[in-house]
Write a structure and sequence with these properties.
It is an enzyme of class 1 (oxidoreductase). This is Glutamate synthase (NADPH/NADH) small chain. This protein has a 5-stranded parallel beta sheet with strand order 7-6-5-8-17, sandwiched between helices. Helices cover about 35% and strands about 15% of the residues. By secondary structure, the protein is an alpha/beta fold. The protein folds into 3 domains: about 130 residues, Alpha-helical ferredoxin (Fumarate Reductase Iron-sulfur Protein, Chain B, domain 2); about 170 residues, 3-Layer(bba) Sandwich (FAD/NAD(P)-binding domain), CATH 3.50.50; about 140 residues, 3-Layer(bba) Sandwich (FAD/NAD(P)-binding domain), CATH 3.50.50.60. The relative contact order is 0.13. It starts with 5 loop residues before the first helix and ends with a helix. The chain is globular, with a radius of gyration of 23 Å. The structure holds flavin-adenine dinucleotide and iron/sulfur cluster (SF4). The site of iron/sulfur cluster has 13 residues, from helix 7 and helix 9.
Length: about 475
């Protein structure tokens, strides 16, 4: 346990955030680790309460409460408090394959349900997690550990996002031979091409992929299953297949003027920006916000990442439309602890927009009704109403040179169902509904991550990848046992 009464006597501190005026000049991570002693002090705030709600990892009132991978938080907090960093790293590694991703970009549902948060500020769990893993890399404690024996079983994992990487890692550790197929030119899924480098720098992803390769996992990039290679081919070459293909079918707006130039899906925009930075590829004019008035349709995290990207590209102005109202400053009575707190916050992109333009870019209850364009077929603006009062008199016209659509995803892409013959549910997700076995309607085919769950979080993708791996292993054991009868 940390320091007696630590949670009352020590002030909560999170990772250091670089000043907005400085960080918008580059594409580096906006958060930085605190010094060792500061993190040890933060760990001292953990009281090792009898029931660590921070670990529960369950859905309460449609939100995530506690850590979905059940990180052993009070245990590693205590080790950090006592300066036993290596032991803390070993404890963290038992449940989390990639703390360097979650320590940077997890929304930390653990903190929302931390017992200390009931009466005071929660423990800075994410800050401590990131420090442990970054220190472990710096000290050289994270080294490849290939399995000592191989089972002779071959598994194909399709997709290399956090779900695919976690699943491959777990199966490889057991000794199975794992090949990860990825249609992009680089592994990482949304960690590589969706999430901007301000949240996760790309060498952090490359470093982990390189470790997995050294441990024996084979990565085949630029291979789209269903296009370059068929499922039939995989069926004969592998003992099991795991679909970790994400939730890539983006939701569209079907409105007058949608085909105008200068209106783009958020994911195309973010991917183009990440590619431009990684390869110095020229940025297509339609994906360059420089000097433009930008409007982002969609009030979620993807929209927020578009705001931060447009700011770094040098946009003239930026507004983000949300469908819902502003969240309350404090938990509503209907949203008690240990549920995830649905409260107003000023996240990184909004702080940057305020610094640059003097106001929060968020507009609430905005319903886009039609797009306006010029004679060259380029967008010039849009007309909105309100989700609150559906009243034509309340229509408003906004000027825009670039409009980004970030209104969410509709499940796995159609090509996955065509290629693998698996069934889908009414939300477009691959049915592998029994969270105990992760099996699809096709024998020997499993699904995990956003493809099965719908668009979610890195930490849920890791959890699903781990559980699907355990289920594949059980399936192979049973198959083996039956073949010996
Ligand atoms: C812009 C954005 C920002 C986000 N920010 C955060 C954040 O800050 N924190 C957080 O926790 N979560 C965040 N998320 C959500 C998080 O990234 C996802 O929940 C997570 O990446 C899902 O992991 P996954 O492995 O299931 O799928 P993905 O990461 O989507 O990976 C799927 C992979 O499968 C590949 N693939 C698809 N079909 C095929 C095929 N037929 N053959 C071969 N390969 C194929 C794709 O190319 C892709 O690489 C964000 C999402 C977006 C879009
Ligand atoms: S993975 Fe996320 S929920 Fe779990 S301990 Fe880390 S920050 Fe908290």
């Amino acid at each position: 346990m940390g320091q007696l009464m630590g949670f009352l006597n020590i002030e909560k501190k999170n990772q250091h955030e670089r000043q907005p005026v400085e960080r918008i000049k580059d594409w580096n991570e906006y958060r930085e680790n605190l010094p060792d002693q500061d993190v040890q002090k933060q760990a001292a705030r953990c009281m090792d309460c009898g029931t660590p709600y921070c670990q529960i990892g369950m859905i309460l009132n449609r939100g995530t409460s506690g850590c979905p991978i059940h990180n052993l938080i009070p245990e590693w907090n205590d080790l950090v408090y006592r300066g036993l960093w290596k032991e803390a790293y070993e404890r963290l590694s038992k449940t989390n394959n990639f703390p360097e991703f979650t320590g940077r970009a997890c929304p930390a549902p653990c903190e929302g349900s931390c017992t200390s948060g009931f009466v005071s500020d929660p423990v800075s769990i994410k800050t401590i997690e990131r420090k442990i893993i970054d220190k472990a890399f710096d000290e050289g404690w994270v080294v490849p550990k290939p399995p000592l024996r191989r089972s002779g079983k071959k598994i194909a994992v399709i997709g290399s996002g956090p779900a695919g990487l976690a699943c491959a890692d777990q199966l490889n550790k057991i000794g199975h031979e794992v090949t990860v197929f990825e249609r992009s030119d680089r592994p990482g899924g949304l960690l590589m091409y969706g999430i901007p480098s301000m949240k996760i720098e790309k060498d952090v992803v490359d470093r982990r992929v390189s470790l997995l390769e050294q441990e024996g996992i084979i990565f085949e990039t630029n291979v789209e299953i269903g296009k370059n290679r068929s499922y039939e081919e995989l069926k004969t070459a592998f003992d099991a297949v795991v679909l970790c293909t994400g939730s890539g079918k983006h939701r569209e707006v079907v409105l007058e003027g949608r085909t105008l130039k200068g209106i783009a899906p958020a994911m195309d925009y973010l991917t183009a920006s990440n590619r431009h930075l990684l390869y110095d590829e020229p940025l297509q004019a339609d994906y360059d916000a420089k000097g433009k008035r930008v409007i982002v349709i969609g009030g979620g995290d993807t929209g927020e990442d578009c705001v931060a990207t447009a700011i770094r590209q040098g946009c003239k102005s930026v507004v983000q439309f949300g469908k819902h109202g502003k969240l309350p400053a404090q938990r509503a009575e209907s949203n008690p602890w240990p549920e995830h707190p649905n409260v107003f916050s000023v996240d990184y992109a909004y702080e940057e927009a305020e610094t640059l333009f003097g106001k929060d870019p968020r507009a609430y209850y905005v319903q886009t009704r039609r797009f306006l364009g010029d004679q060259e077929g380029h967008v010039t603006g849009l007309v909105t109403g309100s989700f609150k009062e559906d009243n034509d008199a309340a229509e408003k016209t906004w000027d825009a040179d670039l409009v980004l659509i970030a209104i969410g995803f509709q499940g796995a892409e159609d090509s996955i169902f065509d290629a693998f013959g698996v069934e889908r549910d009414s939300s477009g997700r691959v049915i592998a509904a029994n969270a105990l076995d992760y099996q699809t309607s096709e024998p020997g085919v499993f699904a995990a991550g956003d493809a099965r769950r719908g668009s979610s979080l890195i930490v849920w993708a890791i959890e699903e990848g781990r559980r699907a791996a355990a289920s594949v292993n059980l399936y192979l054991d049973k198959k083996e046992a039956l073949s010996q009868k």
